[in-house]
Amino acid sequence: MGNIFVIIAFVAYALVILGIGIFSYKKSKSMSDYFIGGRQLGSWTTAISAQASDMSGWLLMGLPGAIFVSGLTESWIAIGLFIGTYLNWKILAARLRKMSYAAGDAITIPEYFQKRFFTQNPVIRFACAAIIFVFFLIYTASAFSSGAKLFNYMFGTDYTLSLTIGALIIISYTFLGGFFAVCWTDLIQGLLMFAALVVVPLVCIIQTPDVSAVQFLNADGAVISNYLNLFENVNGYIAWTTILSGLAWGLGYFGMPHILVRFMAIKSSDLIKKSRLIATIWVFITLGAAVLVGIFGYIFLNSAGNEAMLAEFNAIGDAERIFMFLSGKLLPGIIAGIVLAAILAAIMSTADSQLLVTASSVSNDMFKLFKKDAKEKTLMWISRGTVIAVAVIAYLIALDPNSSVMGLVSYAWAGLGAAFGPAMLLSLFWKRMTMNGAVAGIISGGASVVIWETIPMIPADGAFVSLSTATGIYSLLPAFIIALAAVIIVSLCTKVDRQKVDELFARANAKETEAQAIGE
User: Fold this and answer.
1) I want to staple 353 with a disulfide (CB 3.0 to 4.6 A). Which of 50, 53, 121, 211 is the partner?
2) What residues are paired with 101 via a beta bridge?
């Protein structure tokens, strides 16, 4: 693959993205415009933007790499995410669109919670903003790190220089255009990711003449009989913890601020059904294709006649680069450049959304509480300044070239999903829920993830390990259950203003609410 073709593809792609940012700058005249696009998104933009902002570089790097190494049991993450995607659109999307508008036209998740519980107490907004700030820093750092590894692999550039280039591109269009820029770039990036993920496994399958002749071997050269077994790991054991942990990833969707804000921004809840269909099809095909990249990448490289190529890939020492490697080897010049640009697209589509949500939390949910009379123009510039500040901190975290992209994503996904998922679901459907219950759920969910993942407390082989290491269970599952219980128990122990709650739910259910939203 000639680097000139890759450079042409990347420069063209970057110019288009920056052009959208400049164009969107003129459209972002208010806080509502900058953070939720004035609630004017259509079905396609909402659907593809929501899913592209979710599926970061791990979709083209982490997931295929995990399957390449460990076999089909790793695809339970994909199954869990597919189920979670559908349920999120089916259960939560339309309800959140209506409730966020009925609750005083809230434009951020923390603001929605405060208005949902009719309180001026800043505790809930601070709790939300703190969770968002901490976990999105980690999430954004993982995206920056993915981009740096991509540039480093393709061009051989220094890791730090690669990191700087990728970060500057993302910061530029997010800073300028806000939500409009992020959503429209996500639409382009989502379609590019879709095409790339379909093309690579298809070419790989076509160029593998005899699949049945391939033997699946581990690192020691022993035959693996369960590589293609969905329910057993490569050691021959039923993969209960892998199955449970993989399915648990789907719970995270109910608490992802960068996805939930898309539901708030759609023009009308009547468009949700169409968006759900588009999003579900996109996710099904892209996740399935990512699984095929891992499986058929292994089969292709281990086929007769590809020994030299397999040795070259093994020399890289990083299975997460299987998609990049196959693209460079199997696709011609400019096509390979475009397909590899899809990895950058996946990275950017997530990082930009995370920066924007974090910026909204700082300006609208922290700064505005201290300076309630702040003008919208001031808040807009505070938001843009926050984009830069957060990006700089994430950049510093990502400076370690040995950081695990999948590990960072997993940690952040669990923290956000457990903190916000139970509180969000119950706030939309349970009238008895209180502000104290929401705060208890948010704090206990986030804290449980930290405790489960990082604090050594279980003795093993003469040392102490974390609950995550000891059990093999993904922290999102127990933390989600703990947060759900905390919301219910604390809510039942505290008072609720039933009249105000009944009025809010009545407004959310009224048809005129939608008409007013569209009219404005």
Assistant:
1) 53
2) none
CA torsion 174→179→181→184, rounded to 10°? 140
What b/e string do you get for 301-337 counting C-beta neighbours within 10 Å, with b at 16 or more? bbbeebeebeeebeeeeebbbbbbbbbbbbbeebbbb
| Single-letter amino acid, residue 378 | T
Residue 465 pairs in a beta bridge with 458
Task: Quote the distance between the C-alpha of residue 512 and its chain's center.
Answer: 33
Cβ(138)–Cβ(408) below 8 Å: yes
Alpha carbons 479 and 31: distance in angstroms, whole number: 33
* DSSP per residue, 250-292: GGGGGG-HHHHHHHHHBS-GGGHHHHHHHHHHHHHHHHHHHHH
Q: How far apart are CA 200 and CA 42, in angstroms?
A: 30
Residue pair 140/416 in contact (Cβ under 8 Å)? The answer is no
Instruction: List the domain boundaries for the chain.
Output: 3-19+38-519
Q: What are phi and psi of 463, to 5 degrees?
A: -140, 180
Q: Is 64 helix (H, G, I), strand (E, B) or coil?
A: helix
Task: Residue 370: count other Cβ atoms within 10 Å of its Cβ.
Answer: 8
What pLDDT digit, counting tens, does each position of 433-475 carry? 999 999 999 999 999 999 999 998 888 777 888 999 899 999 9
Distance in angstroms between the alpha carbons of the first and the last residue of the chain:
52
Provide the 3-class DSSP secondary structure of residue 400: coil
Q: What is the mean pLDDT of residues 149-161?
A: 80
CATH of span 3-19+38-519: 1.20.1730.10
Is 315 strand, coil or helix? Answer: helix
Q: How far apart are CA 402 and CA 159, in angstroms?
A: 10
Q: What is the pTM of this model?
A: 0.85
Residue-by-residue DSSP string for 204-254 = HHHT-S-GGGPPPB-TTSPBPS-TT-SSB-TTSSB-HHHHHHHHHGGGGGG
- SS (HEC) of 414-446: HHHHHHHHHHHHHHHHCCCCCHHHHHHHHHHHH
Q: How many CA atoms lie within 13 A of 90 on its CB side?
A: 8
Of the listed ranges 16-30, 185-199, 247-261, 320-334, the least confidently predicted one is: 16-30
Local structure of 120: helix, strand or coil: coil
The C-alpha atoms of residue 473 and residue 477 are separated, in whole angstroms, by: 8
Task: Please give the angle made by the CA atoms of 186, 190 and 194, to the nearest 5 degrees.
Answer: 175
